[in-house]
Design brief:
Length: 173
């Protein structure tokens, strides 16, 4: 990381956060971003768990903490799937994504999931490095997974049953 870690506070995603999350979705994913309806359906879906990261650095006034990231997880009863992790561009490389990912992995452990799966664009080197640092392994490539860009994606897995020691923990978040 090149910048100082940004202190954040995680809390459950609420409908009042939708406008900000959708703003971040468009900033990060452009034409492939979720819509309001898609986000509402996803949040209401069975086995879903979504959180937002609020900046907690004291620079925004008393009681005001802007949402600088969000993440979501789906649990099917055996494994979890990372649905999304998004971090505002202005705070990227400050540990917010790492904090969100660790929260998803911790939640997966609480649910007693056997593994955590995710997909990541093959050209997203920073995200791939973060996932591998935490202990995810590449399983294969999904061709033309990301639409409308038609980018390929790596499928990755973190085996929770085999990972008694938590890789990447103890690092500066």
């Amino acid at each position: 990381m090149t910048d100082d870690p940004l202190p954040v506070r995680l809390r459950p995603l609420e409908s009042g956060d939708f406008d900000r999350v959708l703003e971040l979705e468009r900033e990060l994913f452009g034409a492939g971003a979720w819509t309001y309806g898609m986000l509402a359906d996803e949040l209401a879906g069975y086995g879903r768990w979504y959180v937002v990261a609020e900046a907690d650095d004291g620079r925004h006034g008393a009681g005001r903490r802007p949402v600088v990231g969000y993440a979501g997880l789906w649990f099917d009863g055996e494994v979890t799937q990372v649905m999304t992790i998004g971090t505002a561009r202005e705070v990227q490389r400050r540990g917010v994504g790492r904090t969100l990912l660790r929260a998803l992995v911790d939640r997966s452990r609480e649910l007693r999931a056997q593994a955590v799966f995710l997909e990541v664009a093959v050209d997203n080197d920073r995200a791939i490095a973060l996932y591998e640092e935490i202990g995810f392994e590449r399983l294969g490539v999904r061709k033309r997974y990301y639409q409308p860009e038609d980018k390929d994606a790596y499928t990755m897995r973190l085996d929770l049953a085999a990972s008694a020691a938590r890789p990447g923990e103890g690092d500066a978040a």
